[in-house]
Amino acid sequence: MTDSSNEAFADKAEGAVQEGVGKLKDAAGGLTGDLGLQAEGKADEIAGVARQEFADLYEEGESRIEQAVLFIQDRPLVSVGIAACIGLLLGLLVLPWRKAKA
Description:
Layout: H1 3-32, H2 35-74, H3 76-94
């Protein structure tokens, strides 16, 4: 596993722990009638879920970048052609059209 994969795994684990702690706080607040503790628990739970989802998205994005790098390494000329076409299209869209003077 790479360092970034380890970081993503650690973020997922921390998110799961935070979600679990949030559920416990929510339950404790519900049992004792402490609305503040219950709200804090719900916030922790949502933050934990968000952290896990972000770690998943980060891993997916990292995998896409690795695929792009492998494509560029395997097919450098095709990659340059694609980049040139994209650059040309962006140039045509961004630069204003000039009328030729007769």
